[in-house]
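Record type: monomer structure entry
Structure origin: computed from sequence
Chain ID: A
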Amino acid sequence: MINNNETKITKGSAGNKLLVTRSFNAPVEKVWEAWTNSRILDQWWAPKPWKAVTVVFDFSEGGHWLYYMLGPEGERHYCRADYKAIEPLKSYIATDAFTDENGVPNNMAPSAQWENTFTANDDKTDLSIEITYPTEADLETIVSMGFKEGFSMGLSNLDELLAK
């Protein structure tokens, strides 16, 4: 399914979904923690030279993660993930949106639902993510903003972090 730890991002047949797959050379417990611990998320989430900075983090059903991407010129882009369902060490579902500094969604880009699935594969972890947008046009907006390249860079950052 997943080859050589390469990030694969494809468009789903419905047109409004992105399917992301990636394998990591680390046990599922370590990969899960990297996605569910803000101190670790801040180390890899943003594509370099950007940085992720957590403002609020409550990884629980009904909780949320408010963070911003800090750019090299000091610019800030706020985002919020609202956690809907969590199955520890296996999966979680969250709604993601661009927001203002208070976590109120803005119209910078469309929101999306993320369903992240973590599968143990011997001493590796296979990650599958299904990102669903309201419409195909919304998906195309995110892709045109550089999502595929930026998210691939972030996952490569995670690969480096897990190797330490």
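Annotation 1: Residues 23 and 126 are 4 Å apart (CA to CA).
Annotation 2: The first strand starts at residue 8 and ends at 11.
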